[in-house]
Every structure is written in structure tokens, then in C-alpha cells.
Specification:
The complex is a heterodimer of chains A (about 375) and B (about 650). By secondary structure, chain A is mainly α. Chain A has 16 helices and three strands. Helix content of chain B is about 40%, strand content about 15%. Chain B is built from 25 helices and 19 strands. The chains are: A mainly alpha (about 375), B alpha+beta (about 650).
Chain lengths: ~375, ~650
């Protein structure tokens, strides 16, 4: 009796209806509210008009939502099998960018076919999480901290990081590093590796400095001292700080932000949308937005904790790390805590690629949640591949 | 029954109670033992995941706290500072030039006024590339290389936020085209300003002067001078009364975007228009006088209203057109004006210093009478020359015997005055000269007046460090030697003799119209009357030197004195040839003789004899003035009051 029950419990073939019931609807509400904040911000940036940004933002969210449901409804074991192939495809595309990428603003980041353009680094963010989760699903729990077992995931992280630095895209490289490192930590790799890694980074840092592009160095230098060049690289950060600071506690009101409405702020509808939002809505608005993100992160951590298997657990946690890294780097960047690296604010910044990536990532989180009771046996996976 | 009661083991119970109990964690993990009796590593790993996930969650919350702390720092603690910076970013205020006061003549005719002027200005700080911007502008309005240089220099010299004038005087078509394009050209603005337009320009040029761009020292004095196209008075009354005419600048604050394009106007304080001025000059008479002396090479005429002291005519020839100098000056024309040998820019009436010649004899006569060294009855004889020490001084004509004071003035006998001045002495002569207004300048709003020379021993000591030699006194008696005077001084002296009052010349009457009569001269009225009688004789009696220049009017007589002053002396006789060697012709006069109203002085440089060249000029001008005498029409004061009210009216 027990075995039959266990079999049914461990390998449930969830029906569509059951999957939808299992879905974390409150979490989706939080996600939608964050997007709504983005819509309001984009409406204001356009000077009180849905065109050209707010309406398309909504449309992209809807497409993203469809994609999210598609990902949720596919069985988790299917994704488990697809993890490595996806990772390799992403890796090849990332390498391809260096060869045939479209250059814009001194960096090759895009693959383009006519109208359609695609950023492989976005795909890699998802694929990296899946691949590492897949690896630890396969790895015997006893071997997690073995040296030979740590090397493959380090390579999985290291290769995309190097490729991203080559584009060059400091922000994405940092994101790969944070998400990958966080996943290793969550997977249970010994503290000793992290201490060693920290020591290694400190040792390597001076060499990396020499390898950096001039504009990257300039960015870091002006970050450390924004007054260095107030009309050049320091301009963005200075204007952003002025905008946020001048917003004050209550903000200047929607569409009343002089810094943004008068174009003193660069990229106000993409990377600097948080600046614009906190200028117009003030400390209160900014705190509410950050609180929404924190609630979403709490949901993700909760969902990860409830998973029985390693794969969904790590996938959910990895996507959470990704969301956190995006939000933190972006807000820290616009408030002048870290250098300007060009990372969008997830779900709020205008941009199709970033919106779709984030929705796909959240789709995987919800997929893990829906399949939280599924126990994946090591034997099911077969060999490493 | 041997019942042994054991004492209760309290201590053991206590130890049991205190002994560590298996924790919940141990219970859970014990339940999860694997089949081999060891803890299941998968379960341990899941626990480790949970621990670390909570740890990461805490770290994330902490980092969000860091962001919130940063936002608090920016938005709450330093907010006011950033708000200031943001306002600085978005606001740009411009000074607007005030309209300059209008200048009227005594009848109320406009002499100088501001007219609309369309201009292009740039704010260099907002230009991405100043050169490219200027190129773009020059596609619509030609920008000369000189203008280009000036704009670039200004952009380097001063703060980039100060607007710089590119070019002005645009046509309406150019102005509208540029105004439409300005939003696309960062830093470019069009505006409507004013420029100075002079009516009847050449006749009043020397009096009214002209305006020009402020020079360096003026800019340092007042920042309003940096307002593009702001002009200050450079000469004449425009310079002398610049402060009254200038007005106060206004400001306009604009909201600008990051490229310096104006988004909207935030507010403006209007500029305050400069005060209007009503001059005592009569433009038509001025034009008449100028036309009269036009044929002469260099000449000047001054006519004073002896009652008010107002200067009715102050003409100096050659003259210039102030319109050409004050607005878009043509460098070639300017150089031509500045280099002209006759110096058209010089106002001879104020700055020409001439030996007064025989016109000075009235002063010598007064000095003689005042000191009592001569009496009106004393007669002298004129043999045609006068010997003093080893030198012989010549008279222009042998007058014979029986020359008394009246005849001496009438016939302009040099010998009589040689003797008189010998008796008076140079220092007493100087006292009388100064009492009549010679050797001093008058503060009526025109700068650059010359003092002339009233020589005395102290003057010579200071000037040459030499004692005064008595021989030098003799030629001073007939207005030669060291003596020199300007036409305005001669006119003032004439007015003072005519009225017996210390008349002070002015160009602008007091706004309240109240004219305080000047104090009487410290001269005996009887002596003045004697001199006046002589001057009347000069024009109206047979044998008078200017008898041919009597007024052609019935019942109105003019009194005057001719003068012909030599320019050749022993020192310079070789250098001066032709025109330059000719004598200056002078004439002073007042009219009507009964109740003096106008006093005049005329100097024709190198014009020959005073009676031939200068006296007819004064006769014609005086006739014209008397014919148009505004005392029959109460224009002067009434119009002054009316315009003073009009000047204040619109700004309240």
C-alpha cells in the first residue's frame, strides 16, 4: 500500500487544472503590481502619454505572461532534460556574438536578423541557473564539496563570465558571477571554497584592472569620484543623484520631475527609470517599490524552501538571486553606490528582452513551485548527460 | 517489616531536569536516519540549503536596507541641496536690456529714441559646438568673421552662461526663420531688443553724442553691461547723463532642458525704462546754425538763453552721423572719421581752445574799470603801435587821438587796451576773467570740456616754473599770448556781461521747471553798462567793427564784439602755411540790447577777420532765433514737465 501511495505521491502526473490550482497566485499579483509601477513610470516619462512606452510595456508583459504559463505547464522533468542543451545553445550564441554581433555604443551585445534582435546573454542567465541546478540534481549529495565536483560548475559559470567580459558587458558578467556563486553556496558547497575564492579574487583583481577597457576603468574611476568629470562619464551619476535627491520625501509628483522631463537624465525610460520614479514619487514611492521587490523575493525563497527535489529548489532560488541581483545593481547604480553598468530594473524598465527574460525566469520559479512535491530520483537521470 | 524509606533524590531529579534534551532538530534528523544507520546526506543537504537560503534572504533584506539607507541619505538628509542643484539645472535667467530714455529738444521734437531691433544671441555653455552653431546660424543670417571672432572671444572670457550677441538688425524674414529654427539649435536664441536711432542726426550729433558697446572697464563696473547688445553712452549727453538714460535691467527666467532649449518662461521682472530727457537745444535752430557754418571749413556756434542758462544752439562743423557709429558701425567709416584731419568727432564748442583775440577786450575793459585804473572819460591816442620796454606792440590800425573806452571797444583799438592791461596787471585781469566764466568748465552733462587758459603768475609758476614777465601782460590785454577760451566760455562771458548775473549754462532744465535766478556778478553794474554800450556801438554805430552785421530786424538791436586772433607766433611761423596760418575769426554777441535774451559766440577757425567771417554767422543765427523766439510760445518748460510725467507714468 505504502509503495503504491509513494509512487503516486512521488511521480504525480499533475493535471492542468491541478497545476493551475497549485500556482502561486499571490506571487503573480505581486509581479503584476511591480509591472504596474513600471507602466505608471513609463506613462509619466512620456509626459503623460501611453505612447510610446507604457502601452508596449503592457503588451510585452502580456506576452511574457503567456510565456510564463507555457513554462509552468511543461513538466519539470522535461526542463530537467532540456537544461544542458539550452546551456550549450546559449553558450554557442554568446560566442557567436563576438564573431558576428551587432556593435552599439562600443559593445557587441546583440545578434540581429533584420528587425529582430536578440541578446544571448539574457538567455544565458536562465540557462546557467538551469544547468547548475541540473548538475546538482545529478551529483550525489556526498560529493557536493569534493574538489572535482566543484570544478564543472565553476567552468559553467566561468566561461559565460569571460565571454560577457569580452563583449564587454561588466553588468552581465557580474550578474553571472553573483547568480552562479550564490547557487554554489545554496547547493551546499563548503564555506572553505568561498573563502578561497575570495582570496583568489583579491589576488587576481589588479590583473583584471589592467585587462579592463578604458571606458570601464573610466566608469569605475568616476564612480569612485564623480566630480572627476561632471560633464562626461560622471554626468549620468551626478544627474541621477540630483534627480533622486531633489525628489525629497514626497516627490515632485507624477510628470513633474524636472530632471527627467527636461532630459537632464539619460536613459530615463530604461536603466534610469528608478531615478525617474523616485524623483517623482519621492522616498515613499521608492520605498514602496523596493518593498514590492522584497515581497517578491520572500515569495521566491519560500517557494524554493518548499521544494522536495534539488533541481526545482535550486532553479527557484537561482531565479530569485537573479531578480535580486538585477534590482540591487540597478538601484545601487542609480544612487551612486556602484559604477554605472547598464542593468535594467526588472519588470519596470522599458525593454523587450529584459521583460521576457524576467518572465521566463519567474515561469521557472512557478514551475518549481507547482512541482514542489515531485521527488526526482537520481537514477532517473541516468548518466551525467 | 523492614521498611527503608529512601530520601527523595532531589539532586538527581534536578540533574535530570537540567540535562540537555534532544532538540527538535535532533528528533527530526534521527527520524531521517538512512537505511545504513547514518544520517541521510540528501536530507542534510536540504537542511543546509534551508539554512543558507534563509541566510541569503537575510543578506538580501540587509542589502535592501542599505539601498533604503542610501535613499534616505539622498532624499531626506541632503534633499534641499539636491533640490537646489536641480533648480540650477533647469532654470536659466537672462537679463533684459532696458529701453533707453528718449531725448527731446526744447520744443519736444525727438532727437534720439530706441527702435526695435531683431537679434540672434547664443549661450555658449548650451552649444554643443560653438563653431557648428555659428555655421548653422550663418546659413540664414550672414555672420562676419569679425563677429565670429568676437563671439568666440566673449565665450572664452566670461561665464558660458552669459548670452553673447551674434548679430543684430535682422530683417523680419530672417528673424522669423531663425525663431522657428532656434529650438533645434542648442544654445541659440532670438530676441527683440532696441537700437538707438538719432533723428536729424548730423545737426545734433555733438550734443547728443552716440552710444556703443560697453568697453572693458565699464563691464567691470556693472554686470548689466554684459547683456548682449547693451549700449552705453560714448559721447555727448548720451555719455554725460548715461545713468539717467540707461534705466534698470529686467530679468526673464526660463525653464530649459538639458540642451539649453527653452521649455517655457517661468517669470519675468520687467526692465525699467530710462528717464526721458528734454534738452534746451532747439533742433531746428541747431540745424539752421549748422547749415550756416557748413561752408566754412571748421567752425562752431554757441547760443545761450541768458535767462535760463539753457544752451539753445551748440553747433560744431564738421560733424558726423551718430547712427553710423552707434549701430553696426562700419569699421572703415569709423577709421575715416577718426583719422580725418578736421576731426569731425570733436565738439569744437566745448573742446576748441582759441585765443579770444579782441573779444577779450571787453574783459580787459571791465578789469580796468573795476580796478579804477581807467575812467570812461579818459582818452588815449593811438599811433598804431605801443612800446613797452624794448618791444613794440602793433595796433591793427592807426586810430589817432581821442580814443575813450566806448571808442576803444567800438573800433577795437589795441593800444588803448595795451595801456589798460599794463595798469591793471595780469592777476587782476585773471580775477575778472574768472568772474566772467573763463578758465573753467561747466557741469551740464557734457564730458570732455576744455578749461582754456586764464593766465596769471601762479599759473605760470605751476606750468613753466618761471616768474611772470610784465611784457607778457601786454598781449594778454587783447586776448593773445597765453589767453585761450572755448566758444562755450565766450558765450557764458557774454551772457554774464549782458545780464550782470552769474549765468550758468545747462543742457537740461530741472524737471520741476523751477529756475533759480543766478546770483549777481561781483562787478559794478555801472561798469557793465559802459562795456555793454561799447558792444552796442560795435554793431550799431558808424565806425563799429561789426556794423555790417547789424540785425535786419526793426526795433531789435544786437550788441557784440569782434575778434581776430593770430595763430602765428615767433615760434611756429615756419610750420603753419596756407589755411593753417590764417587768423581765427571770432564774434560774441547778445540780443536784444534792451532786455538781453540770447548770448552767442562764434569761432571760425582760420576764418580770417572776425567781422568778416564770424559776425555774419551770428547775425543770421540770432535773427532766426529771435524770429522764432519761443518766449511767445510757452514751450520749453511746459514740455519738460509733461515729458517728466510721461516718463514716470507707464511704469506704475
Amino acid at each position: 500500500v505504502k509503495s503504491i501511495f509513494a509512487e503516486a505521491f512521488e511521480r504525480p502526473q499533475l493535471l492542468l487544472k491541478k497545476k493551475l490550482v497549485q500556482l502561486n497566485w499571490p506571487f503573480l499579483m505581486v509581479i503584476t503590481s511591480i509591472t504596474l509601477v513600471g507602466v505608471i513610470a513609463l506613462y509619466s516619462v512620456a509626459g503623460g502619454s501611453l505612447d510610446p512606452w507604457a502601452s508596449r510595456h503592457v503588451a510585452r508583459y502580456c506576452i511574457g505572461l503567456a510565456l510564463l504559463f507555457a513554462i509552468v505547464l511543461v513538466d519539470i522533468r522535461w526542463w530537467l532534460r532540456a537544461a544542458y542543451p539550452l546551456y550549450f545553445v546559449a553558450l554557442i550564441l554568446l560566442a557567436l556574438v563576438i564573431v558576428i554581433g551587432v556593435e552599439s555604443g562600443g559593445a557587441k551585445r546583440w545578434l540581429g536578423w533584420g528587425e529582430f534582435s536578440f541578446q544571448p546573454s539574457e538567455m544565458m542567465k536562465i540557462a546557467l541557473v538551469l544547468a547548475i541546478a541540473r548538475y546538482y540534481q545529478w551529483l550525489s549529495p556526498r560529493q557536493v564539496s569534493w574538489l572535482w565536483a566543484v570544478i564543472p560548475p565553476l567552468l559553467m559559470i566561468g566561461i559565460p563570465v569571460v565571454l560577457a567580459l569580452d563583449q564587454p558587458d561588466l553588468g552581465t558578467a557580474a550578474l553571472f558571477g553573483i547568480v552562479g556563486g550564490g547557487l554554489l553556496f545554496l547547493a551546499g558547497v563548503s564555506w572553505l571554497y568561498f573563502l578561497g575564492g575570495l582570496a583568489a579574487v583579491i589576488a587576481v583583481l589588479p590583473h583584471v584592472w589592467e585587462k579592463l577597457h578604458d571606458y570601464q576603468r573610466e566608469r569605475i574611476l568616476t564612480f569612485l569620484d564623480p566630480e572627476r568629470d561632471p560633464s562626461g562619464s560622471g554626468y549620468h551619476i551626478l544627474q541621477s543623484k540630483i534627480a533622486i535627491g531633489s525628489g525629497g520625501f514626497a516627490g515632485k509628483g507624477l510628470m513633474q520631475g524636472t530632471q527627467t522631463q527636461l532630459n537632464f537624465l539619460p536613459e530615463k525610460h530604461t536603466d534610469f527609470i528608478f531615478t525617474m520614479f523616485s524623483e517623482e514619487m519621492g522616498f515613499i514611492g521608492a520605498a514602496v517599490l523596493l518593498a514590492l521587490y522584497l515581497i517578491a523575493l520572500g515569495f521566491i525563497t519560500y517557494m524554493a524552501l518548499r521544494c522536495r527535489s534539488t533541481f526545482p529548489r535550486l532553479v527557484a532560488a537561482g531565479m530569485g538571486l537573479c531578480l535580486f541581483a538585477y534590482v540591487f545593481i540597478n538601484v545601487a547604480m542609480v544612487t551612486g553606490l556602484v559604477p554605472v553598468v547598464g542593468v535594467p530594473l526588472p519588470l519596470v524598465s522599458y525593454g523587450g528582452t529584459s521583460m521576457l527574460t524576467m518572465m521566463v525566469g519567474l515561469g521557472f520559479v512557478l514551475n518549481a513551485h507547482v512541482n514542489r512535491m515531485v521527488l526526482i530520483r537520481r537514477e532517473e537521470l541516468g548518466p551525467f548527460w | 517489616v523492614d521498611v527503608k524509606l529512601k530520601p527523595p533524590e532531589y539532586y538527581a531529579a534536578l540533574l535530570r531536569r537540567l540535562a540537555p534534551r534532544p532538540s527538535l532538530k535532533r528528533i527530526v534528523s534521527t527520524a531521517m536516519w538512512g537505511p545504513d544507520g547514518k544520517p541521510d546526506p540528501a536530507v542534510r543537504l536540504r537542511q543546509r540549503f534551508s539554512r543558507r537560503a534563509v541566510l541569503i534572504g537575510a543578506a538580501q533584506t540587509g542589502l535592501f536596507g542599505l539601498l533604503l539607507w542610501r535613499l534616505r541619505q539622498l532624499q531626506i538628509l541632503d534633499s534641499s541641496e539636491y533640490r537646489l542643484l536641480s533648480d540650477e539645472n533647469r532654470m536659466s535667467s537672462l537679463l533684459t536690456a532696458p529701453a533707453r530714455g528718449t531725448i527731446y529738444d526744447r520744443i519736444g521734437r525727438i532727437i534720439a529714441e530706441d527702435e526695435e531691433n531683431f537679434r540672434v544671441i547664443v549661450i555658449p555653455a548650451f552649444c554643443k559646438d560653438l563653431n557648428a552653431t555659428l555655421d548653422a546660424v550663418s546659413r540664414i543670417v550672414p555672420v562676419s568673421a569679425a563677429d565670429r571672432d568676437r563671439v568666440k572671444r566673449a565665450a572664452r572670457r566670461q561665464s558660458g552662461y552669459f548670452p553673447v550677441l551674434v548679430t543684430e538688425g535682422l530683417t523680419w524674414r530672417q528673424f522669423t526663420l531663425l525663431s522657428v529654427l532656434a529650438p533645434q539649435l542648442a544654445g541659440v536664441r532670438t530676441d527683440r531688443a532696441t537700437y538707438r536711432r538719432y533723428r536729424h542726426a548730423d545737426s545734433v550729433a555733438h550734443v547728443v553724442g552716440y552710444v556703443g558697446m560697453a568697453d572693458k572697464t565699464e563691464v567691470a563696473e556693472d554686470p548689466i553691461m554684459r547683456v548682449p547688445g547693451f549700449r552705453t553712452g560714448k559721447s555727448g549727453i548720451e555719455k554725460g547723463l548715461d545713468r539717467e538714460l540707461r534705466g534698470a535691467p529686467g530679468t526673464i527666467s526660463y525653464e530649459v532642458d538639458a540642451h539649453g532649449r527653452v521649455v517655457r518662461e517661468l517669470g519675468a521682472t520687467p526692465s525699467v525704462r530710462g528717464k526721458d530727457l528734454v534738452l534746451t537745444i532747439d533742433q531746428e535752430l541747431q540745424a539752421f546754425a549748422l547749415k550756416r557754418i557748413e561752408g566754412l571749413r571748421v567752425a562752431s556756434v554757441v547760443v545761450l538763453d541768458v535767462i535760463t542758462g539753457g544752451i539753445v544752439v551748440m553747433a560744431s562743423y564738421p560733424t558726423f552721423d551718430p547712427n553710423e557709429i552707434s549701430f553696426k558701425p562700419d569699421p572703415r567709416k569709423w577709421a575715416e572719421l577718426a583719422r580725418n584731419r578736421d576731426h569731425p568727432l570733436e565738439n569744437r564748442a566745448l573742446r576748441g581752445q582759441y585765443p579770444p583775440g579782441s573779444t577779450f577786450k571787453v574783459v580787459t575793459a571791465l578789469a580796468g574799470l573795476e580796478t579804477g585804473v581807467i575812467t570812461p572819460r579818459e582818452r588815449m591816442s593811438c599811433p598804431g603801435s605801443y612800446v613797452f620796454g624794448r618791444r613794440t606792440f602793433r595796433c591793427w590800425k592807426r586810430h589817432g587821438g581821442g580814443i575813450d573806452l566806448h571808442e576803444a571797444i567800438k573800433q577795437s583799438c589795441d593800444v588803448y587796451f595795451y595801456e589798460t592791461v599794463k595798469r591793471v596787471g595780469i592777476d587782476r585781469l585773471a580775477v575778472t576773467s574768472r568772474a566772467l566764466g573763463l578758465g573753467q568748465i561747466f557741469d551740464f552733462g557734457l564730458a570732455g570740456q576744455k578749461h582754456g587758459i586764464v593766465p596769471d603768475t601762479a599759473w605760470k609758476k605751476a606750468r613753466f616754473h618761471q616768474p611772470w614777465y610784465p611784457g607778457e601782460t601786454i598781449s594778454c590785454g587783447i586776448g593773445q599770448g597765453y589767453v585761450s577760451a572755448t566758444p562755450i566760455q565766450l558765450a557764458v562771458a557774454t551772457a554774464r556781461i549782458a545780464t550782470g548775473l552769474a549765468v550758468v549754462p545747462r543742457l537740461v532744465l530741472p524737471a520741476d521747471g523751477e529756475i533759480v535766478p543766478p546770483p549777481p556778478l561781483e562787478l559794478d553794474p555801472v561798469h557793465l553798462e559802459l562795456v555793454r554800450a561799447g558792444m552796442i556801438g560795435v554793431v550799431n554805430e558808424k565806425g563799429g567793427t561789426a556794423v555790417r552785421s547789424a540785425l535786419p530786424l526793426p526795433d531789435v538791436q544786437m550788441a557784440g564784439k569782434t575778434g581776430t586772433s593770430q595763430v602765428i607766433s615767433a615760434k611756429n611761423q615756419h610750420k603753419l602755411k596756407g589755411w593753417e596760418g590764417e587768423t581765427h575769426a571770432l564774434f560774441i554777441a547778445y540780443a536784444p540790447v534792451g532786455a538781453p535774451r540770447y548770448a552767442a559766440a562764434c569761432v571760425v577757425e582760420h576764418g580770417g577777420g572776425g567781422s568778416r567771417a564770424a559776425a555774419p554767422v551770428v547775425r543770421d543765427v540770432m535773427t532766426e532765433i529771435l524770429l522764432r523766439d519761443p518766449s511767445t510760445r510757452p514751450a520749453s518748460m511746459a514740455s519738460n514737465q509733461a515729458s517728466a510725467a510721461a516718463a514716470e507714468g507707464p511704469h506704475q
